Amino acid sequence: RAKEMGRGQFHFFDERLQATVEEQLVLDAALREALLRGDQFRLAYQPQYDLATGDLSGFEALLRWKHPELGEVSPARFIPQAERNGFIVPLGLWVVRTACQQVQTWREAGMPAHLRVSVNVSPVQLRRTGFAEQVRQALAETALQPGALELELTESMLMDEVGDGPRTLNTLVDMGVELAIDDFGTGYSNLGYLRRFQIGRLKIDRSFVARLGGTAHDEAIVRAVVHMAQNLGLRTVAEGVETEAQRELLQRLGCNQGQGFLWHPALAPAACEALWRQA
Ligand code: C2E
Ligand code: MG
Ligand code: MG
Ligand code: MG
């Protein structure tokens, strides 16, 4: 019986593995075609708010992909695949250029200059030679002031000594581009990189925000992160703020900004424009 069960399990596992490989092949082909066609990707922008004043403070650019047959594919699904097959390099460059273009268009239309746009950067992009030059070129082409662009990195990217990463980050800072740490608190416990690189903002991961109001423990973690950030002269942004209770508590804990469904999900450019015009 044990043998049979074992066989059954093996069969089950085998089928699941098969589905994964197939799914990856389908995604691969679909991504390749989408990159060639170029008309299936768009950026949505999630507004960020100052917790103390309630004012709009910026936008995070989030990549969206609508495939004719697969429908809307979640970035959680296609970004890891694009990182594995290297497509993230051209795709990520498209994201940087499109976001810069959008923000410069808004600025020329009268958007207040303190509103920034944040762009997520993959470790694969950062490790590649030439990323800083690509960003410099995107800024030059769109005539966007470098301080209007913030790049979101993850903790592991700052621990990575391989490739051009560390030098690239310092070049970007010298250019005047802002850096933020995304998903803060989910990565390494060694925080030496906070001294090593000139970071402007910490984005407190939404898993901590979601648990706020639960145990005193979770509140203590957010309090400690905010406290440390204040001492280092960094600003903090809470991700995934969904309730007024969370917003209120985050503000009380001294967190500077927030983004989340309490305000808006990621929106089309026209909806964002309406927001900064009414601000
Ligand atoms: P992230 O950078 O941490 O982005 C925040 C994610 O949280 C977004 O998911 C956003 O839609 C979602 N979110 C915002 N507010 C709330 C909320 O109140 N509740 C909940 N439950 N979720 C909220 P999205 O757009 O699906 O993106 C997932 C991840 O994919 C991003 O996480 C980011 O790591 C990656 N990603 C998205 N766009 C890009 C891109 O252009 N380049 C790269 N390299 N990665 C990207
Ligand atoms: Mg992000
Ligand atoms: Mg991210
Ligand atoms: Mg995040």
From TrEMBL:
Single GO MF annotation: catalytic activity
Domain EAL: 24-279
UniProt entry keywords in alphabetical sequence: Membrane, Transmembrane, Transmembrane helix
Protein origin, superkingdom: Bacteria
Residues in coiled coil: none
Protein name: EAL domain-containing protein
Organism of origin: Inhella crocodyli
Stretch of the intact protein here: 303 to 581 of 581
